[in-house]
Amino acid sequence: MSMWLPYAALGLVIAVVAAVLGRVVMSPIAHCLGPVHGPMLARFAAVLIWGVGLVAALARIGVPTSVTVPILSTVLIIVGGTLVLLIAGGLSRPVRQPRLHVVERATERAGDRDDMPEILERDVLRDGSRSNPRAYS
User: Fold this and answer.
1) 42 with 26: CB under 8 angstroms?
2) C-alpha closest to that of 72 among 87, 53, 90, 86
3) DSSP, res 133
4) What are phi and psi of 132, to 5 degrees?
5) Which residues does 30 contact at the CB level (< 8 Å), separation at least 6?
6) Are 46 and 20 in contact (CB under 8 A)?
7) Could you report the per-residue pLDDT of 68-84, keeping only the tens digit for each?
8) DSSP label at 128?
9) Can you count the helices (H) and strands (E) in the chain?
10) Which residue from 76, 92, 111, 117 could staple onto 86, CB 3.0 to 4.6 Å apart?
């Protein structure tokens, strides 16, 4: 009956070390990658470390690989899929902010164009024909 206790204690130690390591890794990754994507990617790195630590702890306890491999696969698929959706889809606020800044700057520049009527007069002649037909085709 008490043969599994040392394995359970070792599995618990592995889980605690993985939890602490995941938490410790978050700060350097967040600082290295900057304020835009750093905190989000740091959290995903921590989740990956926690998932691998959980699988290692379960394997040490004696849980069969037919149970631990799907757990690890699920963690990897969730983290990878979420990263793809957030970064490629632009759903997160840090990813969307640079895009919004570019759009706002472009609209400000377009609004500052007081010389637009002069440009149109210069490009289109009085009779309606264009001064440079190849530029508009």
Assistant:
1) yes
2) 53
3) G
4) -135, 90
5) 38, 39, 41, 42
6) no
7) 889 889 988 988 888 88
8) S
9) 4, 0
10) 92
